[in-house]
Design goal:
Blueprint (H helix, E strand, L loop, with lengths): L7 H29 L7 H13 L8 E3 L4 E3 L8 H10 L5 H6 L2 H18 L4 H9 L13 H21 L2 H15 L7 H13 L2 H26 L3 H8 L8 H13 L1 H10 L4 H17 L6 H27 L7 H23 L9 H16 L8 H42 L6 E3 L3 H9 L3 E2 L6 E2 L4 E6 L13 E9 L5 E2 L1 H6 L5 E2 L5 E8 L3 E2 L6 H11 L1 H5 L2 H7 L5 H14 L7 H7 L5 H14 L2 H8 L7 H14 L3
Helix pairs in contact: 1-5, 1-6, 2-3, 5-6, 5-7, 5-17, 6-18, 7-8, 8-10, 9-10, 9-16, 12-15, 13-14, 13-15, 13-17, 13-18, 15-16, 15-17, 16-17, 18-19, 21-23, 21-24, 23-24, 24-26, 25-26, 25-27, 26-27, 26-28
Length: about 650
């Protein structure tokens, strides 16, 4: 046979390869297209602002302040690794439309599908293509693509692993170093991608290729720390180490166990059915499991069953993954390490442990994006167990049904999240029409972040900065619900209700907070999807922060830098509170700010005469941290304080200041 007349077997092989390539390309295109129709959502506007800065000056990516929490802050004090902003900045030079920006992410979608297929083909041959579709279009990935870092980081991390596994198969240093470079980019896309370095190191340990694994990990770390060093030289603080110093866990670690189960149960119920099939469940058990999943999600349209449904499904999935991961290890024993197949089982089990560790170590709060890596390794473990079933051929129908169910759930999540994203621009349009009908040229202010902030700013509205923004009589104020927002006092003497607009779209389901900042990724919803209350200012006033003194003090202690310093006016105001605890918390916060608290010296000096000893103690500590001449004078006047604890703290503060 010559090239013009290939063998029938070769022709069939070429046809299968072309079909596989077409399927992977189609999945990537579908993932990209479904993302492209969604307006800017959640953290998209934040990254868009960084991308605009990169386009304007690529050498100064974080050289500006951004307003994304309670107060404006230097952007390098927030987490925005460079890969996605730089990629998006390149896209901004080509087009100025959100759809074009979303289409610009197609390479990440393609990398993800190809890398997952490569990994599954290596470890779970025979079921790789449907499982790739099940994963890429799952509730964990499809709705959360957006313009955020999470899916691009997952794509680069998966590609790094796929390349490293190929490097091992080819005995190639070039491929291993390429994997290390990709892993470095992945870690500077989202820091949780550090898990891939641990997996590469574990693979090197199990395969006894220490030097090659070490070189790949070393190159990845060089990329990571090289960027950190550049940013430290540029801004005096690297983004990663700044977060390590000032970062905080918003949710106690013990509570994260339940959150993890809820997240898995919400976004990966199809994997539970895959796990049951891999463990040899009968058709009746699989049918019952599918009925529970379908019935539970249908029930969400009518009643809030998520608090019961998700933990049950999540616990079942965790047990299935644990059984599949540990079963072969327990039967093989430690001696099984001498066989290549056993090494793969140990590698996957170790990868699972790494992803669980990263979830608990690096998640300040629960969110679907926190479990992407864990979802991938769980999928690989279950697919591998399924592919090794003796009745593999008989399970093809099961895989097809499970995949179809998973795609339906992914589509449901995507549709609800699309409606969530569309609500913000729709609400802004309605508010603009309402205000326009009664407009007299007054300014329009708003509170709220995420997509709502982006579309308000597009409409020419101004964000309220607590303790800074001066609202004039007759100005408008928009207050959305539910949208993450800066908290201000809504005083009836200052503001008059002037109407409400409501957006009611789609089914009685919600993603929003639960998907992007909680553990109930899809919830039953009542009432409008988004409401915006309209107010008009009765008189001139400065919008005040509504945070409690304890919240302000915690912010000053934990946030660090100029981010915390923005709380200074509210902390000073808290010193005048009639509640002793408020005054005590205010002095605690001002003490943490140190020299940044210098404008509060006069108020702190007065606090040294407070009737409550704890307030006097805190004021002395704060003045000792501030340390200017006025602080010294105020402290010296309290050397005879009647409370011995306060006297001692005054002396310590003066000692810290040194000779006058």
């Amino acid at each position: 046979m010559n090239a013009m007349n290939p063998r029938p077997g070769a022709t069939a092989s070429i046809g299968k390869r072309r079909a596989r390539i077409a399927a992977l390309l189609g999945l990537a295109l579908l993932l990209t297209a479904l993302n492209a129709v969604k307006p800017l959502h959640i953290d998209d506007p934040f990254i868009h602002r960084v991308a605009e800065q990169v386009r304007a000056d690529p050498t100064d990516p974080y050289g500006f302040d951004i307003f994304w929490l309670q107060w404006p802050q230097p952007v390098h004090e927030e987490l925005t690794p460079p890969v996605v902003p730089y990629w998006w900045a390149l896209g901004l030079t080509l087009a100025e439309h959100p759809v074009a920006w979303k289409l610009w992410l197609f390479p990440f979608a393609l990398i993800l599908t190809v890398a997952l297929h490569s990994i599954l083909r290596r470890f779970a041959r025979g079921v790789e293509l449907p499982v790739v579709a099940l994963t890429v279009l799952s509730p964990a990935i499809l709705p959360g693509f957006n313009l955020m870092q999470d899916v691009p980081a997952l794509a680069l991390a998966a590609a790094a692993l796929a390349l490293y596994f190929e490097a091992h198969a080819r005995d190639s240093w070039v491929w291993a170093l390429a994997a290390g470079g990709l892993a470095g980019l992945a870690t500077q896309t989202k820091y949780t991608a550090v898990a891939v370095l641990a997996v590469i190191a574990l693979h090197g340990l199990l395969s006894r290729r220490f030097l090659r694994a070490g070189a790949a990990v070393g190159l990845a770390l060089a990329v990571f720390f090289g960027w950190e060093a550049l940013m430290t030289a540029r801004y005096g603080q690297g983004m990663f180490f700044g977060q390590v110093e000032h970062g905080l866990f918003w949710v106690p670690r013990g509570q994260m166990v339940l959150h993890l189960l809820r997240l898995l149960g919400a976004t990966a119920p199809a994997l539970l059915l895959l796990g049951l099939a891999a463990l040899g469940a009968t058709r009746g058990i699989l049918t019952a499991g599918a009925a529970v999943v379908c019935g539970g999600f249908l029930s969400l349209l009518f009643v809030p069953v998520e608090t019961l449904l998700y933990p049950v499904l999540g616990a079942g999935l965790a047990l299935a993954v644990g059984a599949c991961a540990s079963g072969r290890l327990l039967t093989a024993g430690i001696a099984g390490l001498s066989r290549p197949a056993r090494k793969v089982d140990w590698l996957l089990a170790g990868w699972l442990v790494v992803e669980i560790g990263v979830f608990f170590a690096a998640s300040p709060f629960p969110a679907v994006r926190r479990i992407l890596g864990l979802t991938i390794v769980s999928t690989v473990i279950l697919a591998r167990a399924l592919s090794r079933q003796a009745r593999r051929e008989a399970l093809r129908g099961v895989v097809a049904v499970v995949t179809a169910l998973g795609l339906l759930l992914g589509g449901l999540f995507w549709y609800v999240d699309l409606r969530e994203a569309q609500a913000s621009p729709a609400a802004v349009r309605q508010a603009l029409a309402e205000i326009g009908a009664r407009s007299d040229g007054s300014r329009v202010w708003f509170v709220g972040h995420w997509g709502f902030q982006h579309y308000c700013e597009q409409a020419g509205f101004r964000p309220v900065v607590p303790d800074v923004s001066r609202v004039r009589a007759g100005d408008w104020l928009l207050v959305p619900d539910p949208v993450d927002q800066q908290r201000i006092v809504l005083d009836g003497d200052e503001l008059a209700a002037a109407g409400r607009v409501a957006v009611e779209t789609g089914p009685a389901l919600r993603t929003g907070y639960g998907y992007y900042g909680g553990s109930s990724a899809l919830t039953h919803a009542r009432g409008p999807r988004l409401t915006v209350d309209l107010y008009r200012a009765r008189r001139d006033f400065v919008a005040r922060s509504s945070w409690t003194a304890r919240q302000l003090a915690d912010w000053a202690v934990q946030a660090g830098g100029r981010t915390a310093a923005a709380a200074l006016p509210a902390l000073v105001r808290s010193l005048a509170s009639s509640a002793a605890d408020d005054r005590m918390q205010a002095t605690r916060g001002l003490a943490a700010l140190g020299r940044l608290g210098a404008p509060a010296v006069a108020e702190l000096g007065r606090s040294l005469g407070d009737a409550e000893p704890a307030v006097r103690y805190g004021a002395a500590r704060a003045l000792g941290a501030i340390g200017d001449a006025a602080a010294r004078q105020a402290l010296e006047a309290r050397l005879d304080d009647p409370d011995p604890g306060v006297r001692e703290e005054v002396r310590r503060a003066l000692d810290r200041l040194g000779p006058g």
